Amino acid sequence: MKLYGVLAEFSNADRLIEAADQARQAGYAKMDAYSPIPVHGLSEALGQPDTKLPWAVFAAGLMGGTGGYLLQWWTSTIDYPLNIGGRPFHSWPSFIPVTFELIILCAAFAAVFGLFIANRLPKPHHPLFAVDGFERATRDRFYLCIEADDPKFVEARAFLESLQPNQVWEVEA
Amino acid sequence: MNLGRVRIVAGGAAALGLVGTLISAFATDTSIWPSYLVAFLFCWGIASGSVALLLLHQLTAGGWGFLIQRPLEAAAKTLPLVLLMFVPVLIGMHDLYHWTHAEAVAADPLLQHKAAYLNTPFFIGRAALYFVVWMALAFALVKWSGRPSKLQKIAGIGLVIWVVTTTFAAFDWAMSLDPHWFSTIYGLIFVVGQALGTLAFAIAVLFLVRGTDIAELLNTKRTHDLGKLLFAFVMLWGYVNLSQFIIIWYGNLPEEIVWYVHRTEHGYQPITVGLVFLQFVIPFFVLLSRRPKRRLGVLAIIALGILFVRLVDLFWMVMPGALRPEAGLALADVAAPMMLAGIWLLAFTFLLGRRPLLNREDPRLEEVLHAH
Q1: Domain count, chain B
Q2: Residue B173 is part of which domain span?
Q3: Given an 8 Å threshold on Cβ–Cβ distance, is B250 in contact with A93?
Q4: Which chain A residues contact residue B293 at CB under 8 A?
């Protein structure tokens, strides 16, 4: 039987943070937590690296802005120059609203789709769904899962049990 | 607390500024009134902006508001002093406002048309009304700072009244310098500028007093919130200014575009471009990333920079056109802001030192302190 990981259940968010904190200090790295509410300080306790998403959003915003500006510059000065009120063809103030909107649009797209990609969503099935009672992760229980590819995984079950959770499961992959 | 050192700096600046202002008043040909008006608008902006941020804090009750509540209250309490600083503006009115010249109005049908609003008695009456409203708001905010249930009832309507009165004050004191020109967003530019300058000032003060009892509340997350708010106000400032510019540039009507012509010719172009970069582009890119917003020291340096640029911005709003057609820096331009800001800062530090910096009377503080 190939394992996905070991799952421990806790009754509240403080216990979950404490458990994640101890697991990180014990040297576990491949783990994740599941909770019905956002828990402040959890990602620090899990030792998750800072997200790279802001860079993707910044790059996409920059691209959108540059693209939007160049499109207007090219259409109104090269491809189809029109004399509007005697203004120069390259009238940058009139290009700013569209440039601004495209920065926002592209940055927002990068943020939303980047979020899906970074979280590997959509995910119709997950091994943890097989655990009986795991649906309480959407209601009133907090879970910490140490995954099988962690180098210290052989000791994981004993370690999680030492934290005195409500319950511990071995989850099949 | 480092307030002792601030007092020495403020006192020194006030004394030097006073000497400089007196020298330029009696020994040079340039009128000191335009410089005085810029300095007055700067001090007024922080005192009146504090009323707005305090009202905003009562509406939202975020942790960031508790961090800067006492500095803002102390700044709001300086409004009587700001009123005193306004009196010389009335003395210099004739030098400042073209519409006060009876012979100019007699020769100008447009000014005759506007005379029902732009006349000296009504101007003084309106100013009195604005100050009464702001001081009443400041009084309530300070008196009931431990009873938020009372303040929450007036905060919403208070903020509306504040925006309307500040808009008209901006029309009266700054926009009427060029009585032919008008822009409906002009008041909002002042409103946003005051909020930006006041928040920058409060962040700088918070950095100075970070070692007092406020330390209990001060953490990275709340510093981050203040940084985000500063970032938002920087963007809003850029937004309202660009809104005015694009509309006037598009319309290209002689009576409107003249305001920008004054500011892009006669040597003012470097200041115009400088403001775009120093009050928008550079703060925008510096505050865009997460790290500078989370470090109070870095944030305080950015805030002080913004505060200085606010003064330059007011100079740029007031000077070009009628008051000083050709760009240039007079002694009074430096001396008058030093004098008024120095005096104001002295009063501010004394008012700040009077109460503990953490507002423990507010029942909501307990909840904020223990929130994750």
Answers
A1: 1
A2: 3-357
A3: yes
A4: none
Using a CB-CB cut-off of 8 Å, the residues of chain A touching B245 are 93
> Would B60 be classed as within a structural domain?
yes
Return the domain boundaries, chain A. Answer: 3-36+140-172, 53-118
Q: Say whether the ipTM exceeds 0.90.
A: no
Q: Which of helix, strand or coil describes residue A172? A: strand
Sequence-ordered list of residues with C-beta below 8 angstroms from that of B130, at least 6 positions apart, any chain: B165, B166, B168, B169
- What is this structure's pTM? 0.89
CATH number of the domain at A3-36+140-172, please? 3.30.70
Structure tokens, A74:
């090219």
- SS3 helix, strand, coil % of chain A, rounded to 5? 50, 15, 35
Q: Which of B246, B289, B290 sits opposite A93 (nearest CB)?
A: B246
Banded pLDDT at A165 (limits 50, 70, 90): very high
Nearest to A96 among B242, B288, B289 (CB): B242
Instruction: Read off the pLDDT of residues B43-90 as tens digits, 9 standing for 90 and up.
Output: 999 999 999 999 999 998 888 999 999 999 999 999 999 999 999 999
Tell if the CB–CB gap between B290 and A54 is shorter than 8 Å: yes
Q: Is the Cβ pair B372, A41 closer than 8 Å?
A: yes
Closest CA–CA distance from residue B246 to any residue of chain A (Å) = 6
Whether A39 and B372 lie within 8 Å, measured CB to CB: yes
The helix (H) or strand (E) run that includes residue A55 is helix A53-74
**Domain membership flag for residue B124:** yes
Strands of the A167-172 sheet, one edge to the other: A31-34, A142-147, A3-10, A167-172
Q: What is the pLDDT of residues B331-370, one digit of tens each?
A: 889 999 999 999 999 999 999 988 888 888 888 888 888 8
CB contact under 8 A, B245 and A93: yes
A40 contacts on B by Cβ (under 8 Å): 221, 372
Do B245 and A97 count as a contact with CB atoms less than 8 A apart?
Answer: no
Residue B372: pLDDT band with limits 50, 70, 90: low
